[in-house]
Design brief:
This protein is α+β, with helices and mostly antiparallel strands. It is built from 13 helices and 13 strands. It has two domains: 2-53 and 269-401, no CATH class; 61-262, no CATH class.
């Protein structure tokens, strides 16, 4: 440890003695490490943002469809009850019926997307009820003319967010019925607004599927698809279990007549895509680190040339090849470590600035910091190896002659 300490002291002295050159050499490492830290933080923040916004648009649900080209079977209310009874940890199951029409209030007439579902349809989107309440099972069973909408839609079509108890006329396929607002959902998130930007305005209205059937001639005794709601951690498994149950109940084993997918599956695919994007950016950052490492190697070669006489004297008085090599490697490692530390600090600052400006959550993982520090040392050792070997292999008589 004593000799190693001397080598380190000597390396530090040499680095301090060439301050300007040291700073210029470190610059490439600083930029590379800062880029790695910022890219990893940005990738983590982007992934978290997209996932949260995606869940905010559609909630945690899966859909099971029947392919009518392969069977004449359809889902029934008994199937819904079976799934809700058997899969006890899900939030519910609902048929899905929708249509495009119009809604009319005293303020005017607006295009509308009308969705019919059961009381479990509350979980279709993760934005909860902020005023009033969602329609109940009793209201679904009794075909009551009640509806739920976004609070933003209430401001638009009623001119106020105090819309609980107000009435509107819903028109679908030439038929009109009057519904009472019983609940308002909170506003949708930024991603939904971005996706809808530039498109024609549609109010989103949710009503009991039974009322939709009674008022607008939708057939609601049997269904082509069912929506299953559950936490994302169990969603894919429950959709697969539900598909297996329904396949057995309807005798469809081997027909591939049932299809099932979930938002969790889509989220995993999205994670994969985002992971590839982050990896690509990370690769670009690592390339800049390699360029910085080449700069370290060049400077170390210059240092070897400048200190040829010093190397010759040391070797002539008994310094071993390993000692010379260790000194130069220590100098390269310390140089890149210092650059790595500064790069980590700069990278964290960059991550906070960029993520704050974009609106992403700042996620700087300890693993990325530790990895960046370790990688900077490895860069120094790798690119310092050749100059160190060149210095160590010098013959004393040749070094003293120069």
């Amino acid at each position: 440890m004593g000799k190693l300490g001397e080598y380190i002291k000597s390396a530090i002295k040499q680095i301090i003695g060439n301050g300007y050159r040291t700073l210029m050499t470190m610059l490439g490492i600083v930029i590379g490490i800062a880029a790695v830290i910022a890219v990893v933080a940005l990738g983590n923040g982007m992934t978290e943002f997209v996932q949260s916004q995606l869940n905010g648009i559609a909630g945690n649900y899966g859909i099971i469809n029947i392919d009518t080209s392969k069977t004449s079977e359809l889902f029934t209310q008994d199937d819904i009850e079976l799934l809700e009874t058997t899969l006890t940890d899900i939030k519910g199951v609902s048929p899905e019926i929708s249509g495009y029409g119009k809604v009319t209030t005293r303020k005017g007439t607006y295009e509308a997307n009308v969705s019919g579902g059961s009381e479990s349809f509350l979980h279709q989107m993760s934005n909860g009820i902020v005023k009033g309440q969602y329609f109940t099972k009793q209201q679904v069973d009794s075909n009551q003319r009640v509806c739920v909408m976004l609070i933003d839609d209430a401001r638009k079509i009623f001119g106020t967010e105090d819309a609980i108890g107000l009435e509107l006329d819903i028109t679908l396929y030439g038929k009109t019925a009057t519904y009472t607002v019983v609940g308002l959902r909170e506003s949708m998130n930024r991603m939904y607004e971005f996706l809808m930007e530039g498109q024609d305005y549609y109010a989103n209205i949710e009503i009991p599927y039974t009322s939709m059937g009674a008022d607008f001639d939708y057939y609601v005794e049997k269904f082509y698809s069912l929506m299953l709601f559950a936490d994302q951690s169990i969603l894919s498994d429950r959709v697969n279990e539900a598909k297996d149950l329904l396949t057995n109940i309807h005798g469809l084993r081997g027909t591939k007549a049932l299809n099932g997918y979930s938002m969790a599956d889509f989220s995993e695919e999205l994670d994969s895509v985002l992971g590839y994007a982050t990896s690509f950016l990370l690769l670009v950052s690592v390339i800049s680190l390699v360029v910085g490492g080449i700069g370290v190697m060049n400077i170390m070669l210059v240092s070897v040339t400048e200190r040829t006489r010093e190397i010759g004297i040391r070797k002539s008085i008994g310094a071993k090849t390993g000692a010379i090599m260790t000194q130069f490697l220590a100098e390269a490692a310390i140089l890149t470590l210092l650059g790595g530390i500064v790069g980590i600090i700069v990278g964290i600052i960059m991550a906070y600035i960029i993520c704050t400006l974009i609106g992403f959550k700042v996620i700087v993982s300890p693993t990325s910091i530790l990895g960046a520090a370790l990688f900077s040392i490895l860069i120094g050792l790798f690119f310092g190896l050749y100059p160190a070997r060149k210095a160590a292999k010098m013959k004393p008589i040749d070094a003293l002659r120069l």
